[in-house]
Specification:
With 877 residues, the protein is an alpha+beta fold. 43% of the residues lie in helices and 11% in strands.
């Protein structure tokens, strides 16, 4: 490694010969005119030379020339590249007019190009900040500017995990700082400013244990035996889990429980972001101390829809089906001596693969047979079930030639009309863009719609009665808002009750109901409305009580709400698109239903493209029904010091596997209506509320000391955090909030709409889609989303039947825990943590010294971070 100085003669192309090295941000050293880069800092920028991406955006010639000159400046001052780009962004943003120019004007075209250029600069700044290597070389690189960028080498810190973590923390810190906006700073100040509760002066730091005080309680344990320590700990530390629910007051401090959780969440290294879907936050507190201080915090949220290694582990991918058919084996490279005539002085041996089978042929046959039986049982009816849960009655009324028979037989008419409906919905959802004519080139338009792609004519798009209404706007829909009063409905119900027999004539009511409702709202027969969560039918009901009438009326209101959602442009296109796929792939299962042998059936599916496609679709539909209901992602999990010195993070991880967490989930989501599934069906869809599986990722690629070796003994088995692989290393962590906002602005200007509006049901990972879509509009490579910071993935089954449940084969899983006495079972987790981890930890001088040195105000409170007067500008970049 050579010593590098910042000299005017440097060019990026000349640095390409320094294998795997690029330069970090400028080290400002007062009094020095030459900035030197240490060997350690140079090693931070080892890059992956096999994954180049061209950085040649779609800009006007003038801005491309300006960008090319900027790369020259970076080339001459590689140490200072981030500062150079920041300065350029400030200068270019200063050119923006005070007001957005009018549409159609020449000034607007210039304005759009300027906004695009700002977007390019922000992307460039962010990838430079996360250690991308930038190379400019006109002699080797085609295109303009002649620049390629290389992501960091994912293995650059394989021998130095501590250094890797330092770099990752630096990347995360920028996003974390960005979250401290005005309202957040006011919230933190409010929590840290003293208030009075029950005559006592209280602030949030009173929920943090003082290190010296804690040390005094623990240091005498060093002289005891392990069993004695555990017994003493029962009085000194008494953990319990508390749901951090908004609107619930903490009796010890008077604070809102969610505010307590939120405050401590802001102390984390990672930024605090809310996610759509299911979510439960927890506090882990210590009942042994005054005010019950916080030991740790946790949060479980809806799992990601797509996570490759997790889905392979669960069996939701086609490659995992194929893997299950193979005989388990282990291949080792063994050194063999070469024949005498082939030996040379330099080579006497050669390595050859040796295969060792891990199961006998009989074991393999039995296992693969069960595997095929399991898969077929789960997927055979999956597609048909999904079809039944997608509304299409309104589609039949749109076309005279479309009938129920077309859906049952999957006719060409069904596919044609569904394709057209998808196109109509897409056209409206895209904001009714310019309709492409036969003699026009789509490349000449930023936002264009080609009707021929959906077998439509321009005339088919005139006077459409489809609206691009936000489906969430119907969440407040009530019977009153559509002109039907609840009292009228109750009167209708009661009018059909035979006063003597107290029986209900649902057919008579059905006729009255159709007369009462607006003509444009079509309903299933009211006899299908369930009385309660057990889906009891009205026609089997005897005595009728007013409360049950209200339940039926409320359900009817929900039916109307989801019918209206299903008729928005978003869900018309989603329903039509999904039905095409399902009808197509259902054919394989219908045509091969006569195959009795399960293995033969699965092998037949894997041998043809149609079969593979059908199996892939069925697996995906199976996953969609359970990924948002039977499993959750551990989004937050960690200890608050000084408990972190006692491996409190492991306590939190262990506590999340307990029966109290499962019961909390069950109670919160009992009767919970799935927003997307309900809008697709046009009626309430209540998903299951069993929690059989948790997944999570470590913060770093190198593994997590918090999750490693976490095992929880339970009556029916052992719960374990199992390392199942890594994420792919793609994501949005390298792009800051300002970059995301700029990319969204560019897309909205170019397409005259918001391509990603963050609507629930629009699609997964809106932040990622927003960035990808924006970069496409700038002509930048989507591989720039490759941050090369993969994370370790952990799987945590909570039931031996977790796969059966997640494949829909059982509805009432047997848990590892006995659910009869959840309090005692949860306590056993805390007892195990004390014996397994704390009893050994408190015997270490290093642990006790760390506890003693901890100061809540100096080491954890975050008020000083939000007081900008105490920081220089560089602290926030």
């Amino acid at each position: 490694m050579r010593e590098v100085t910042d000299t005017p003669e440097m060019e990026i192309g000349s640095w390409a010969t320094t294998r795997g090295v690029a330069l970090p941000f400028l080290l400002w050293l007062e009094g020095y005119t030459t900035q030197r880069v240490s060997l350690q800092m140079m090693n931070d920028l080892v890059y992956d030379e096999n994954s180049p991406s061209y950085f040649q955006p779609n800009l006007s010639d003038g801005y491309l020339d300006e960008l090319d000159r900027l790369f020259d400046r970076i080339c001459k001052s590689p140490n200072d590249r981030e500062k150079v780009i920041e300065t350029k962004i400030e200068e270019v943003e200063g050119r923006l007019p005070d007001h957005e120019p009018a549409k159609g004007s020449q000034q607007r075209e210039e304005y759009i190009e300027l906004q695009k250029y700002i977007g390019v600069l922000r992307v460039l700044h962010d990838i430079a900040e996360v250690r991308y290597h930038i190379k400019k070389d006109p002699d080797e690189i085609e295109g303009y500017p002649p620049v390629v960028v290389y992501p960091p080498d994912p293995d650059r810190f394989s021998d130095n995990p501590d250094k890797y973590k330092q770099i990752e923390q630096r990347i995360l810190e920028k996003e974390r700082r960005a979250q401290f906006d005005k309202s957040t700073r006011e919230f933190i100040r409010t929590m840290e400013n003293p208030s009075r509760h029950k005559g006592r002066r209280i602030d949030v730091t009173d929920l943090i244990v003082d290190g010296e005080e804690f040390y005094q309680d623990l240091h005498h344990l060093q002289d005891l035996e392990r069993d004695e320590i555990t017994e003493e700990l029962d009085d000194l530390i008494q953990p319990y889990v508390q749901v951090a629910e908004s609107g619930v007051t903490d009796p010890h401090t008077g604070y809102d429980l969610h505010d307590i959780w939120r405050y401590f969440r802001y102390t984390w290294r990672t930024p605090y972001n809310t996610v759509p879907g299911r979510n439960i936050n927890f506090l882990i507190r210590d009942a042994a101390r005054e005010l019950h201080p916080v030991m740790g915090i946790a949060s479980i949220a809806s799992s990601m829809m797509n996570l490759k290694r997790r889905d392979q582990y669960l069996g939701w991918r086609l490659d995992s089906v194929e893997e299950g058919l193979k005989r388990e084996k282990q291949v080792n490279m063994v050194e063999h001596q070469l024949p005498k005539e082939e030996r040379t002085p330099d080579q006497q041996t050669v390595e050859k693969p040796v295969t060792n089978y891990l199961e006998t042929e009989q074991e393999w046959e039995e296992r693969s047979k069960k595997h095929c039986q399991f898969i077929r049982s789960a997927v055979e009816n999956s597609i048909e079930e999904s079809i039944q849960n997608i509304r299409h009655d309104d589609f039949l009324t749109r076309f005279d030639d479309l009938t129920e028979r077309d859906f049952k037989k999957a006719t060409e008419t069904a596919f044609t009309r569904l394709k057209q409906l998808e196109g109509m919905g897409t056209y409206v959802f895209k904001g009714k863009p310019h309709i492409l004519q036969e003699d026009e080139d789509s490349e000449n338009f930023e936002n264009v719609f080609d009707p021929s792609e959906f077998e439509l004519r321009e005339s088919d798009l005139r006077d459409l009665d489809i609206e691009d209404t936000d489906p969430d706007s119907y969440d407040k829909t009530t019977l009153d808002t559509i002109g039907v009063s609840k009292s009228d409905l109750e009167a209708l119900v009661l009018a059909d009750v035979d006063e003597e027999r107290r029986e209900y004539d649902h057919q008579e009511f059905e006729q009255r109901l159709q007369q009462a409702f607006p003509s444009d709202i079509e309903l299933d027969t009211f006899s299908e409305v369930p009385i309660d969560l057990e889906a009891t039918k009205l026609d089997s009901f005897g005595p009728l009580e007013l409360e049950e009438i209200e339940d039926r009326v409320a359900y009817l209101g929900a039916v109307i709400k989801f019918r209206l959602k299903s008729e928005t442009a978003l869900f018309i296109k989603k329903r039509a698109h999904t039905l095409q796929k399902l009808l197509r792939d259902r054919e394989f299962f219908l045509n091969h239903s006569d195959i009795k042998d399960d293995r033969e059936f699965i092998e037949a599916a894997l041998e043809s493209e149609a079969g593979r496609r059908a199996l892939r679709t069925a697996l995906k539909e199976t996953k969609k029904r359970r990924v948002g209901a039977g499993m959750m992602n551990i989004q937050v999990c960690g200890a608050i010091p000084p408990y972190s010195h006692l491996l409190g993070g492991k306590l939190v991880a262990m506590a999340l596997t307990g029966p109290e967490i499962i019961n909390t989930y069950r109670e919160k989501y009992a009767g919970y209506e799935s927003k997307i599934a309900s809008a697709m069906k046009g009626a309430p869809v209540v998903k299951q509320n069993e929690l059989v599986f948790l997944d999570t990722t470590g913060l770093y690629k190198v593994g997590s000391a918090q999750y490693d070796r976490v095992r929880v003994p339970a009556p029916n088995g052992q719960i374990e955090y199992e390392d199942i692989g890594e994420t792919s290393g793609y994501g949005s962590v390298q792009f800051g909030a300002k970059t995301r906002e700029q990319l969204a602005t560019v897309t909205e200007l170019l397409e005259d709409r918001k391509a990603v509006r963050g609507r629930f049901g629009e699609g997964v990972a809106p932040k990622m889609r927003q960035i990808r879509h924006g970069m496409e509009n700038l002509g930048l490579d989507g591989d720039l989303l490759k941050h090369e910071s993969p994370r370790v993935i952990y799987a945590v089954p909570l039931s031996e039947e977790f796969r059966d449940y997640l494949f829909g084969l059982v509805d009432s899983p047997e848990y590892y825990w006995s659910m009869d006495d959840t309090a005692q079972a949860q306590q056993s987790i805390y007892d195990h943590w004390k014996y397994r981890w704390v009893s050994k930890r408190v015997q270490r001088d290093q642990t006790l010294d760390g506890i003693k040195a901890f100061d809540p105000i100096e080491d954890l409170s975050i008020g000083h971070e939000i007081d900008f007067r105490n920081h220089s500008i560089s602290d926030f970049f």
